[in-house]
């Protein structure tokens, strides 16, 4: 709303009728008309002491607020309330318009496969019936819930108002038969499944609590990995310090938005140039992107950087195949360590100086992993929620596992490997879509130790659209199940301590990769709404509200600035359970969608460091952004889509919320209502990037 003007703006700032306030009409106040905030402060008399006496000892009479002061306060409160209502109305209109655009466009998640990157083309295409099984199951539950809601409403209306005698008798008999049937045959197995999921939920919550306590202990004792040998001296005299030969790899595929900033960041690493070599591993199938990346590499070569460009003719095995091909070069034998950065990662100049020293005189160390930070974490609600998740992952999960058991899953980037450890573990394998976790598990079975550095950061991007985030999460949750099926015999046969085998099988794989998505989807998206229609089976309030709230509180502790988003985070995590559950099942049972590999879309947002590095060459950078080739630059259109599974689940949850009103289950109603709205927003693609 625009600031007040005219009569209201020209009004005297002293409320209470001007001079009347000083003549005993009330306490004078100053009204600050800064829209939309306002404040009122009293004007104290200069010669009055704390007890209400003037300098001469005469008591000043007590003065109350007069009608004019109260009127001003009420007007200002009404003005502020009107501003809030106007903001809410504009937000609702914007959401409504965005939803109308989604529905009018008619693009669904089923249309996304035809528009994806060619990087997924080599994966076997799943058959349409297999892909729609989960959606068909959810749709069947939705139709059943609508039918049961209609029956309950009819029975409720018959009980309150009464129908004609024959109709009332028939309806009453049918309803009584249904009640007896569900009490005898539906409620017991549903309650049994609910109790099993609650038990899994409690076990997983206990695991998360123990990890959080471990993180608290690390901060309390100020534990931190430290190199065995002293810190490195200045790089001006390489012969005086420990500057081993380091190979740096940047795998990329059709990522023309980010290649410049990642290459620039890596070429500016503070390390003797004679002891470092950068490999740009380009798997792009777009000739324009290939030409741009090759020209960027040549430009840095002219500036003295030791950097080479590699492009595979046979693009097999996705990222693992790319890295495997690069490690087969003859000159790799001259290098002792390899640092890996994805195309959107931008290491700081001192990255190698803070990671490589941990390898010196520590022959058992195979991996040093740094944490991620994000240049676009405040871009939209989706990136804020991702930031909460990943901050907990690095601050708690990775740090605790690295500190106490020297093992964690390699994050695929922002890490330094000992090349001997890679070779001893069998090298990169293309058998799953999580090649980083695969090599980490095999190295752990060989006895190599890992170190996680929570204070060494590497900047990168978060997916800004729900479509990109959904594809990324599908790969991250289907791959571990593929790997578990392949690695389980090796884990059982491995000669390592029993507790390490138990940690790897039951905690690392089963609890955190299988049980978590299973109970999240089954308990909160299936069982809970069904208990509204089968009240003989029930879930207590502490399962629905209190423990999830506590777990969300623990998750958000590593990112305290995100506390205002604790409720959206709780709802969004349950919303993502449908994608994670689908991915977990596809990976566990080797369904076709488990082999999908789609490169996460990048927006190319630069950090302050990138701008500082590239600022002397900004003119050349602008020229590089224009393709020098005469081939037409293909521009892929981006769309917002409707996600059918999430939309069907939103209707199921909202139907269950309506049914809960008949039973007066307050806590369950609010949870189902808000969770249904959350699924609705995600189903209409209203949470991430809005493509106009």
Helices and strands in order, then pairings?
Blueprint: H1 7-10, E1 14-15, E2 29-32, E3 39-42, H2 67-105, H3 128-131, H4 133-160, H5 165-221, E4 246-252, H6 259-267, E5 276-282, H7 287-302, E6 307-311, H8 318-327, E7 337-340, E8 346-347, H9 351-355, E9 365-374, H10 381-404, E10 415-418, H11 419-424, H12 435-445, E11 449-460, H13 466-493, H14 498-533, H15 541-556, H16 566-588, H17 608-614, H18 618-624, H19 644-663, H20 666-683
Parallel strand pairs: 4-5, 4-7, 5-6, 9-11
Antiparallel strand pairs: 1-2, 2-3, 7-10, 8-11, 9-10
Helix pairs in contact: 4-5, 4-19, 5-10, 5-14, 5-15, 6-7, 6-17, 12-13, 13-14, 13-16, 14-16, 14-19, 15-16, 16-20, 19-20
What's this entry about, in short?
This protein is of the alpha/beta class. Helix content is 53%, strand content 9%. The longest helix is centred in the first third of the chain and has 57 residues, at 165-221.
Terminus-to-terminus distance: 25 Å
Sketch the major β-sheet: 8 strands, mixed
The count of strands amounts to 11
The average pLDDT score comes to 81
Membrane topology: Multi-pass membrane protein
InterPro entries: Glyco_trans_2-like, Nucleotide-diphossugar_trans
Transmembrane segments: 505-533, 668-687
Pfam family, one: Glyco_trans_2_3
């Amino acid at each position: 709303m625009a600031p007040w003007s005219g009569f209201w703006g020209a009004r005297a700032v002293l409320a209470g009728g001007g001079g009347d306030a000083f003549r005993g009409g009330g306490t004078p106040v100053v009204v600050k008309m800064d829209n939309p905030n306002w404040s009122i402060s009293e004007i104290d008399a200069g010669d009055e002491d704390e007890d209400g006496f003037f300098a001469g000892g005469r008591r000043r009479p007590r003065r109350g607020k007069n009608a004019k002061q109260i009127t001003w306060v009420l007007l200002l409160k009404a003005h502020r309330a009107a501003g809030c209502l106007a903001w809410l109305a504009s937000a609702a209109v914007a959401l409504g318009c965005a939803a109308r655009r989604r529905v009018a466009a008619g693009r669904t998640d089923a249309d996304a496969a035809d528009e994806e990157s060619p990087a997924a083309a080599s994966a076997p295409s799943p058959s349409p019936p297999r892909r729609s099984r989960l959606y068909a199951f959810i749709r069947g539950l939705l139709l059943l819930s609508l039918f049961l809601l209609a029956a309950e409403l009819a029975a409720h209306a018959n009980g309150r108002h009464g129908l004609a005698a024959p109709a009332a008798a028939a309806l009453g008999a049918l309803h009584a038969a249904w009640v007896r049937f569900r009490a005898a045959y539906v409620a017991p197995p549903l309650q049994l499944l609910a109790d099993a999921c609650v038990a899994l939920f409690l076990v997983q919550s206990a695991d998360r609590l123990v990890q959080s306590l471990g993180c608290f202990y690390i901060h309390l004792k100020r534990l931190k990995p430290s190199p065995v040998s002293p810190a490195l001296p200045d790089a001006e005299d390489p012969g005086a310090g420990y500057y081993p030969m380091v190979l740096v790899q940047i795998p990329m595929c059709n990522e023309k938005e980010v290649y410049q900033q990642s290459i620039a960041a890596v070429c500016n690493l503070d390390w003797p140039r004679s002891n470092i070599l950068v490999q740009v591993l380009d798997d792009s199938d777009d000739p324009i992107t290939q030409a741009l990346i090759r020209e960027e590499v040549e430009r840095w070569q002219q500036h003295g950087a030791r950097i080479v460009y590699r492009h595979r003719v046979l693009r097999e095995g996705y990222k693992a195949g790319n890295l495997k091909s690069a490690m087969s070069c003859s000159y790799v034998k001259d290098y002792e360590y390899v640092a890996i950065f994805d195309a959107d990662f931008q290491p700081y100049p001192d990255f190698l100086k803070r990671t490589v020293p941990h390898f010196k005189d520590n022959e058992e160390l195979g991996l040093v992993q740094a944490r991620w930070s994000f240049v676009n974490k405040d871009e939209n609600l989706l990136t804020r929620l991702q930031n909460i998740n990943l901050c907990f992952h690095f601050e708690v999960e990775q740090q605790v596992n690295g500190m106490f058991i020297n093992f964690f899953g390699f994050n695929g980037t922002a890490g330094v490997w000992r090349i001997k450890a890679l070779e001893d573990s069998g090298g990169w394998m293309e058998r799953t879509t999580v090649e980083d976790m695969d090599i980490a598990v095999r190295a752990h079975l060989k006895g190599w130790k890992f170190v996680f550095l929570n204070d060494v950061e590497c900047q990168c991007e978060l997916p800004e659209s729900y479509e990109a985030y959904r594809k990324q999460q599908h790969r991250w949750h289907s791959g571990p199940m593929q790997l578990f099926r392949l690695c389980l015999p090796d884990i059982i046969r491995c000669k390592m301590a029993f507790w390490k085998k138990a940690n790897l099988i039951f905690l690392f794989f089963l609890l955190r990769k299988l049980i978590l998505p299973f109970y999240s989807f089954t308990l909160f998206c299936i069982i809970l709404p069904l208990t509204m229609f089968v009240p003989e089976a029930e879930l207590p309030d502490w399962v629905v509200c209190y423990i999830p709230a506590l777990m969300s509180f623990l998750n958000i502790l590593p990112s305290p600035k995100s506390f205002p988003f604790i409720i959206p985070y709780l709802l969004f995590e349950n919303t993502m359970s449908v994608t994670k559950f689908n991915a977990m099942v596809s990976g566990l049972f080797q369904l076709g969608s488990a082999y999908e590999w789609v490169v996460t879309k990048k927006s190319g947002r630069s950090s302050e460091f990138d701008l500082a590095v590239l600022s002397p060459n900004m003119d050349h950078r602008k020229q590089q952004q224009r393709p020098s080739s005469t081939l037409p630059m293909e521009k892929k259109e981006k769309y917002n889509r409707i996600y059918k599974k999430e939309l069907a689940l939103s209707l199921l949850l909202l139907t269950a919320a309506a049914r809960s009103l008949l039973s007066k289950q307050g806590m369950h109603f609010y949870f189902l209502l808000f969770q249904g709205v959350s699924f609705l927003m995600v189903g209409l693609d209203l949470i991430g990037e809005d493509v106009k």
